[in-house]
Amino acid sequence: MSALSDPPTMAFLCRVDLQLSTGKLAVQCAHAAVESLQRAKKTHSRMVQRWNESASRKVCLAVEDEAELEHFLQLVQEASLPFAVVQDAGLTEVAPGTVTVLGVGPGPRHTMDSLFRNLQAYE
């Protein structure tokens, strides 16, 4: 497959149990994207370049709670993918230090799809 037909992916695993407002969730995903991309530039620079040159694919996925997010964090670490765990400052909707989103990638689409195949889109 060419890079264009198999673009790298960035994923955001968002906790459903927190019932964050749409705006709050968007900001948490933005934090995850920025931090994960900064890390990826240091460790996966070619993947970042491919991601920037393609569609910059992103997916927003639902995890039930912090325990499920932690499970996927372990898988991501084992796969040596760049990631960011977002902890909220606690100024609005949740308590300080609440883990809200796990941002992953950019990483190879096939790896990301394999890791997260059982997750549904966040709605």
Characterize the structure shown.
It is a single chain. The chain is of the alpha+beta class. 42% of the residues lie in helices and 23% in strands. The relative contact order is 0.29. It has 4 helices and 4 strands; from the N terminus they run βααβαββα. The protein has one domain (9-116): Bit1 (3-Layer(aba) Sandwich), CATH 3.40.1490.10. It is globular and about 35 Å long. Strands 2-1-4-3 form a 4-stranded mixed β-sheet. The protein starts with 8 loop residues before the first strand and ends in a 7-residue tail after the last helix. The chain has helices at residues 22-43, 45-53, 66-78, 109-116, and strands at residues 9-15, 57-63, 83-87, 99-107.
Name the descriptors:
Bit1, globular, 4 helices, 42% helix, alpha+beta, four-stranded mixed sheet, 123 residues
